Amino acid sequence: MKRIITVQDISCVGKCSLTVALPVISAMGVEACVLPTAVLSTHTAFKGFTFRDLTSDLSAIAEHWKNEKIRFDAIYTGYLGSFEQIDLIHSLIKDFGNGGTRIIVDPCMGDNGSLYSGFTKDFALAMAGLCAKAEVIVPNLTEASYMLGIPYVEKGYTKEYIEDLLKKLAGLGARRVILKGVSFDDKKLGIVSYDSESEKITWYFHEKMPQSFHGTGDIFASVLTGVLVRGLKLDEACRLAADFVVESIKATLSHKDYNWYGVDFETPLASLRGACDEAIQSHGLPRTSCSQ
């Protein structure tokens, strides 16, 4: 069985970060290990949430793993809350990123043209430095613009603009770039991927849902990481991840009294493993591979 270490916070209530990554990655037949950066009573859309920073524990945890000679097939990072945490991920990649370990960075720090509360332009540049160490990065348009230090363009952009943006992001150092939230009309939402080695750009558009929810980016990145580690190519991984997000939103909207703070990814979760296995078999890939 493949083994992933995912580094991000955990909200005790609210479907995001580790409460998404753990079940989603596990459901795909991949071992999910965690390095929690903080514990929150709820995610930050709630008022009055509690917060405990775990930065001081991260190095000791990683040192224990080194002593036990534990290795990982992938390191997947989500929301990181400080410069110190970014520095610690650099160390984690140095210590555990050898022997074919895949590095996937979701630079969670902003949306809709603005950085999240507490983040600065300098933090975005530090995140760009972390993305330079990654094989795959998964920014949205906001995060892309801040990491590149260019103005955010909300709409009216062209296909050529997006393709240039992808190449500039790859110029940070990541070999493969996935840009989320691309749209040219009110009916479709797109995922665009770029492989700098083959120079292949792949577009995938799906139905734009009538409502947005917290945590969908975490769901996308978690599915993406799981299927990449199991051996699927980038474009196929993007399609599976995007389709699962759509199915999760549809499941949420089917409930009259759905939660405003997160999507019902649990309902379609059972079908995710089947879709993953089917895609694996169609490409003639092995069903499992053991980690030591």
UniProtKB/TrEMBL annotation:
Q: Which GO terms describe its biological process?
A: pyridoxal 5'-phosphate salvage
Name the keywords, alphabetized.
ATP-binding, Kinase, Nucleotide-binding, Transferase
| GO molecular function list | ATP binding; pyridoxal kinase activity
Q: Does the keyword Transferase apply?
A: yes
Any Gene Ontology CC annotation: cytosol
Q: Does the record's keyword annotation contain Transferase?
A: yes
A Pfam family annotated for this UniProt entry: Phos_pyr_kin
Q: What is this protein called?
A: pyridoxal kinase
Supply the source organism for this entry.
Answer: Treponema bryantii
